[in-house]
Predict the 3D structure of the following.
Amino acid sequence: MSLTDKAIARIRELIRTGALPPGSKLPPEPELAAQLGLSRNLAREAVKALAVARVLEVRRGDGTYVTSLEPTLLFESLGGAVELLQGDSRALQDLMEVRRLLEPAATELAATRISDEQLAEVKGHLDAMRDARDNVERLNVHDAAFHGAVVSATGNDTLLTLLDAISGRTLRARIWRGHLDADAADRTLAEHDAIYQALAGRDASLSRAAALMHVSNTEQSLKEHLRAGDLPADVPTQSPAR
């Protein structure tokens, strides 16, 4: 570990042990450096790094505070890192594989917890997808909202944030899948309808199977387009999609 990494680890340990709980203010830089047994420069670099990671918040004229440490905040940098990998076909396939491992399990869990109101929200997004079947970009936006509503029904914010970050990586591929394959919208709608019907029946096993089929089909289509070179590197991205 570099000296800066060690400094970061020491501050994180203070946060982990509760010595610096969420919302607390860090001591002034000289005091913090002395407390950690570090130089002021190292303490300053560690604070900067943790601020980038959204663990700390530097408020000009006020001081440095520990953030809320909410998953949505801490995983935000993951989504940004994922977007930087857009030109890496291997990374895209790896992320789709991770999605295949996580999303069916999340959908299975959602089937056991989803409320009537949440189910109605999922249905609303499905209907919006049908209305947008001739507009690939809009279809993808509603597709993202559909899956977000499903995972949100698990009540697990960490899982929701993690899948949002991973799925944002696939927007470009999904848009071009629709442009290159005229039947893609019909297949996507049928797959999403199967997920909705399984959720409506509160059938956990069927919900998992329907989600697995959908993600696997998307993954296979992505691999085929990547092999064929059908996914340009400069496809615009607007919002996460699944």
